[in-house]
Each structure stands twice: as C-alpha cells, then as structure tokens.
Design brief:
The chain has 95 residues and is α+β, with helices and mostly antiparallel strands. The protein has a single domain, classed as Double Stranded RNA Binding Domain (2-Layer Sandwich). The chain contains two helices and four strands, in the order E-H-E-E-E-H. The protein has a four-stranded mixed beta sheet, covered by helices on one side. Strand 3 and strand 4 form a beta hairpin. Helix 1 packs parallel to helix 2.
Amino acid sequence: MQTKITFRHLKSRQDLQEAALDAIKKFERFSDLISSASVEFTADSKNKVQFTLVVNGDTLIVEESSEDFLKSLRGATDKMVRQLKKHKAKLIERN
C-alpha cells in the first residue's frame, strides 16, 4: 500500500506522522483491499485532517476540523472506520 502524509501551512511533526501511520494500520484491519492512503494536515483557521483511501477502485474521503490536530485525527479516524465498514457491507451485498 502506498502511503503519503502531507503538511500544509505547518512544519512536519513526528508525533502527527506516527499517529497518522497508526491510524492507517488500524484501517488495514477493516479492509485488505486498500491500495493507497494519504493524510493531509492543514493549519488554517482550524486544524484540519483529511484522509483519502483508495479501496478496491473506490475513493473514500473524510475530513475533521478542531482546535487540536490529534483530536481532529481521532475524529477523522473514527469517520473513516465507519465508511470502511459501510463499504465492506456494500461489497458483500453486491456479491
């Protein structure tokens, strides 16, 4: 799986990188069809985290903003887990 972590309007932080990689590993438990994952940290008026996953040819995107990057990362991780479960259920329905 290809993994990309991007920091916009802020310097790269090791703690955020490690937390993002841990989140991506968590996603692998819910789907083994993930071909690429990207995480984008953006420091604007709020601290935004965006996950983009390509799963079996489908693109799943979630965003979360809050006053803290780690809080945004946890919220975005929870949203992506829900989307992965829903995506898996749809794949099962199709077959």
